[in-house]
Specification:
203 residues, alpha+beta, Nucleoside Triphosphate Pyrophosphohydrolase, 9-stranded mixed sheet, 4-stranded mixed sheet, globular, manganese, hydrolase, magnesium, metal ion binding, NUDIX_hydrolase_dom
Length: 203
């Protein structure tokens, strides 16, 4: 994943964080919960992401961080979530965070929506079939460099960066990946674009 590495010497003083990769059974098959960060935020503004954020001193562990942040951002009830696995942390070089991905199953879904519009603009359950659809997959080209990374155009969002890298790996490991056109390139910084194959995002 571009810009994301296993922890090294530079990650020792990185701030700890966690994200919740929450899978559920939706009307269109298995899906994953994504949100879009508010445009007014100082960092990662308007960027699609998994629920999650920085660790608090009161958090027991990174699972606690991921569940707390999801509750604060989208109103998730942690009682309806079964944690399946905790992946090794990844160092986000640009923001200097050490992020732990927490994989979970949403066995008892609840209604979710932005709790604070100053932090989260909207929330969407995205079917894995839409993420795997070749029509929704592109390569993101980073400005003023030769770096390329996978991205997804779904539900009115251009999902890129850390989130897209994780989704790309999970689709491949889970056997969901389909052959797609790696020459379909869009430039970073991205602009929001709604592909014809995707419905408008729920508000």
């Amino acid at each position: 994943m571009t810009g994301h590495t296993r922890p090294g010497p530079r990650a020792v003083d990185a701030r700890r964080a966690a994200v919740l990769i929450l899978f559920g059974a939706g009307p269109d098959g298995p899906d994953v919960l994504l949100l879009e960060r508010a445009a007014e935020l100082r960092s990662h503004a308007s960027q699609p992401a998994f629920p999650g954020g920085a660790a608090d001193a009161t958090d027991i562990d990174r699972v606690d961080t991921a569940l707390r942040e999801a509750a604060e951002e989208v109103g998730l009830d942690p009682a309806g979530v079964e944690v399946l696995a905790v992946a090794p942390p990844l160092h986000l070089q640009a923001s200097h965070y050490l992020v732990t991905p927490v994989l979970a199953w949403w066995h008892t879904p609840c209604a979710v929506a932005p709790v604070d519009l100053a932090e989260t603009s909207f929330v969407s359950r995205v079917p894995l079939t839409e993420l795997a659809d070749p029509a929704n997959r592109v390569i993101l080209r980073y400005a003023q460099s030769d770096l390329l990374s996978p991205a997804f155009q779904v539900h009115g969002m251009l999902v890129w960066g850390f989130t897209a890298g994780i989704l790309d790996i999970l689709l491949r490991l889970g056997g969901w990946e389909r052959p797609w056109n790696h020459s379909a390139v869009v430039d970073h910084p991205p602009t929001r674009a709604v592909p014809a194959t995707s419905p408008p995002p729920p508000r």
